[in-house]
Design goal:
2 strands, 289 residues, mainly alpha, 12 helices, two-stranded antiparallel sheet
Amino acid sequence: MNNHAYFLCSNQMLKSVENKRFALTKVMRSKRAFLPEVLSILCILCLWQFGASQYPKAILPSPGETLIALMQLLFNRSLLEAIGATMLHSLGGFTVAAVAGISVGLLAEMQQFVKRMLMPIATALQGIPPIAWIVLSVLWFGMGNANSIFTVAVAIFPLVFIATIEALQTTDPKLLEMAQTYKIKGWMLVQEVYFPQLISILFPAIASGLGLAWRVGIMSEVLSAPTGIGAELNRARGNLDTATVMAWIVITVVLILSGDYLLLRRLRNYLMPWRSQMIVQDRGEFREC
C-alpha cells in the first residue's frame, strides 16, 4: 500500500514537472514567434534616430519628438474623427469594389461574351493612376466623402475583378470531372470545389486591395477631403509641423498592421482552415503555420 501510494505521488510529481516544462516551452515559443517583428521595429527606430541626428527637426524629427506629438494627438478629439472619416472612405470604397468585383467576375466567367467585353476595360482601369481619379472625382462630386469613396472603389475594383476571373479559371478540371461523376451540383459544388480554389487566390488579392484602399483613401483626403487622416496630414504640412506629420504616419501604420493581424489573418484562418493545419519543419521542430 505504501509502495502504491509512493508510486502515485511520484507519478503526479512527474506529471506536474512535465506540465510546467510544457507551459514554459509554450511561453518561450510564443515569445520567439514575435522576435523577427520586434527586431524589424528596432532596426527601423535605429535608422530613424540616425537620420534625425543628421537633419534638423523641420526635415526629420526624432522618434522621441514624434512620440510627444503622438501623445498630444491622443488627447485631441480630432483623432477619433479623423480615423473614423478615413475608415469610412477606405473601407466603404473597398467594400463597394469587393462586392462589385466578385459579382461581376462571377458573371463574366459564366458568360464568355461579357468576359471578353469587360477584360479590356478592367485592364485599362488598372493602368490609370489613382491621382487621375482623384482629380476627376473632385470635378464630379466636389469636396466631401463621395469623392474619396469613389476613388478607392474605382482603384480596387479591377484588382478584385481580375483576381476573381483568374481564380475561377484555375479550378482543377479533375475536380470538376469528379464532381460531375458523383452528380455534385448547386451549393455543394460551390462549397466543395469552387470556394476553396476561389478563396485561396482571391484572398491575397483582397488583402492587397485593402492595403491599397488605405493608401488611396488617405491620398484622396490630402487633396480633396476636409476630414480624415489625409486632411490632418495636409493641415500639419501647411503648419510646417513635421513631428505631427510623422505622428499621423505612425497612426496609419498602426491601423494597417492592426487590420492585418487582428482581422485579415484570423479571417484567413477561418476561411482557409487547411492552411492553418499545415505543419512545417523549423529548426528541427514542428510548428503550426
